[in-house]
Each structure stands twice: as C-alpha cells, then as structure tokens.
Amino acid sequence: MIVDHSNTRVLEILESREKAVVLAYLRRAKAEGLLAEVAEVTTDMWDGYVSAAREAFGADVRITIDRFHVMKNFQEQLTAARREIQRQLPKDEAKALKGTRWLWLTNEENLSAEERAELAQLQRRFPLLGQLRRQRERLRALFEDRTIHSAGAGAKQLRLWMREARALGLQALERFCQTLENWLDKIANYFVKRASNGRVEGFNTGLRALLRRAFGMVNFEHFRLRVLDCFGQPAV
User: Fold this and answer.
1) Rg (Cα) of the chain, in Å, rounded?
2) What is the pLDDT of residues 121-143, one digit of tens each?
3) CB neighbour class for 159 (10 Å; exposed up to 12, middle 13-18, buried from 19)
4) How far apart are CA 49 and CA 147, in angstroms?
5) What is the mean pLDDT of the chain?
6) Where in the chain are the domains?
7) What are residue 56's DSSP bridge partners?
C-alpha cells in the first residue's frame, strides 16, 4: 500500500511487495508527476522498500524508518529477553512471572492502579527485569523527546541508549541493538520531521474491514478498486 501522508489518502495498492514491483510503480508515478516532489519516504525495515525508494527518488529524498516498527521489534526482543531471564531463575521464582507478559509490554499510563502496583513489586523482586522495563521506557521517551531536532542528535541519543541496553548482558537486547545499528541513520531521520506510518496502520484497519464486509475477495483488481474508491480521495 502506497500512502500520501500530506493528503491522507491511499495512492495505490500493489499486488506484490517485491522490490521490482514497488520500484516500477514509484518510477512510473514520479515520471507522471504524481510523486515528482516527494521529500520523504517512511517505511518499515525491509530492504526492498528502502532500496526501491532510493533508486526511484535519489539521494536527496529522506528515507525514514517508522518508529512504531522499531518499537514493535523491541517489544518482540523484550519478550525474548524476559524469557531469557526467566529461564535462569529457580522454578518457584519463575512461577511468579507466569501470566505477567502484559505488564512488561504495556505503557504505564494504560495500566490500572493495581497493575502498576503489581509491576512495581515485580521490578523490586526481579531487579534485572526492572532494568529491562526501564530501558523500554527510556527508548519510548527518547522517541517522544521534542528537544531532539536532528538526525545527528537522535542517532547520538540512540547510541547512548544502546550502550546502556548492552550493559544488561542479554542476548535478545544485543539482537535489537544490532538491528538499530544496521538501520540507525534511517531510524534517526524520524527526529527531523517526526514522520511515521501511523496513517498506514489506520488504513490497514480499513482494508481489513472491507475484506470482512465482503467475506473476503479473491480478485485482486476488484479489491484494489474498492480500496481506492473508499480511501483514495484527499482528506478535506
């Protein structure tokens, strides 16, 4: 799905996410004028999308990795790190963590008072897990920090965060830090204009609703036309 963030609309639905398909569309839309003035592209961490955007638009267009995909990747590694810690605990201690996954992954403002109290107690009982939770909150706060105004400043703060995260000595966090390093320049581009793919996720919800109402669609072109009819007009 190709989304025009400036006008809050779906530009196109492509049948494949393969680089060749994406690149062909981007080049055609640029030549026709539809994408002639693109200044920034937001995407997830997939080489095909990134390299297609770079080849289509050149070095002057900023490519930004969506912060929500970064946090999603971190949440997955946080769960792996929690299990890593849990495996090292005596069985009776590990049992106390059963069913607490929600607490470690949820923003504090979305927890009830009872859940916050339970989480605080668990963090005191399991200090390494407490540090892991604090690293999560530090990373989230970093993306929310409006005093960071450039990619360079963002990259510097992300490197400092990685140094702290790696000090915990958890394999899962090391994997996440390696991912951050691999994509650091494009993740740090978020701090320039704070562009994200939040609208894309909203449109994805709409697409799923279309499929539910139609009890599924086997003809891609029919689905594409339905999507463009519903979501292809600029927001008023």
Assistant:
1) 21
2) 999 999 999 999 999 999 999 99
3) middle
4) 30
5) 93
6) 2-66+196-231, 68-182
7) none
